[in-house]
From TrEMBL:
Its cofactor is Mg(2+). Keywords: Carbohydrate metabolism, Hydrolase, Isomerase, Magnesium, Metal-binding, Phosphoprotein. InterPro entries: B-phosphoglucomutase_hydrolase, Beta-PGM-like, HAD-like_sf, HAD-SF_hydro_IA, HAD_sf, PGP-like_dom2. It comes from the Bacteria. Belongs to the HAD-like hydrolase superfamily. CbbY/CbbZ/Gph/YieH family. Its EC number is 5.4.2.6. It comes from Streptomyces nondiastaticus. NCBIfam families: HAD-SF-IA-v3 (TIGR01509), PGMB-YQAB-SF (TIGR02009). This is Beta-phosphoglucomutase.
Length: 250
């Protein structure tokens, strides 16, 4: 399937949302930084070490379910908080409370800034649909549906496995492959005949762990080698590079 940059055996495409389809990864990174910096400043005072919106984001939270991201980053700083409950208010210093606080910031930023889809990704998904490939969105975000609608691309996908669905079905998030496997199952396609499209290292690991037929790394931030080492079969800066024979792989 050279026109899509895929092996001939591929019958389905499983797309991550933030950073692959939409320009929301930077919004999430900014929200994590705002939330964690406020928490760390209140805890440690003016001399606190800030959250790095590039390194800390990529290593500890990108691609993970919200609560997992909170736990992962706090563990990197040697901080342990009570788990709390999913309905904890944002001012409560628990894992769930910090997650709620971060989500409120994200929603505010999306309302202020809107959501923009990557034009190259939209063209690629249209091409995949025209080629008869099945299509799903697989995201850890509980706001996935709203983001798809805001970006005007919700109708391009047959299946959505997001943070809401994962919680309902008790599916562990990335780097576990379960959400991608669930998407393939709903599409009626074996994992070996599905391609995964991801920009996060956790997503790469999920693609490799699930034994999917092809794993595409989307490098928006200059981490091509890390994406390869975590499981990418090919790395591109934009999905449009995969269209046609002229696409050049990074």
């Amino acid at each position: 399937m050279t026109s899509l940059g895929l092996p001939e055996s591929i019958r389905a495409c499983l797309f991550d949302l933030d950073g692959v389809l939409t320009r929301t990864a930077t919004v999430h990174a900014a929200a994590w930084k705002e939330m964690f910096d406020a928490f760390l400043k209140a805890r440690d005072g003016e001399g606190f070490r800030p959250f790095d919106a590039v390194d800390d984001y990529d290593q500890y939270v990108d691609g993970m379910p919200r609560a997992d991201g909170v736990r992962s980053f706090l563990a990197s700083r040697g901080i342990r908080l009570p788990e709390g409950a999913p309905d904890d208010p944002p001012e409560r210093d628990t894992v769930q409370g910090l997650g709620t606080r971060k989500n409120a910031i994200v929603l505010e930023k999306i309302r202020e800034m809107g959501v923009e889809a990557y034009e190259g990704s939209v063209r690629y998904v249209h091409a995949a649909r025209a080629a008869g490939l099945r299509r799903a969105v697989v995201s850890s975000s509980a706001n996935c549906h709203d983001v798809l609608v805001a970006a005007g691309i919700a109708d391009l996908f047959e299946v959505r496995i997001d943070g809401v669905v994962a919680a309902e079905r008790k599916l562990p998030g990335k780097p576990h492959p379960d959400t991608f496997l669930e998407a393939a199952r709903e599409l009626g396609v074996e994992p070996g005949r599905a391609a995964v499209y991801e920009d996060a290292l956790a997503g790469m690991e999920a693609g490799r762990a699930g034994a999917f037929g092809y794993v595409v790394g989307v490098d928006r931030v200059g981490q091509a080698e890390a994406l390869r080492s975590h499981g990418a079969d090919v790395v591109v800066q934009d999905l449009e590079q995969l269209l046609g024979e002229a696409g050049e792989h990074t």
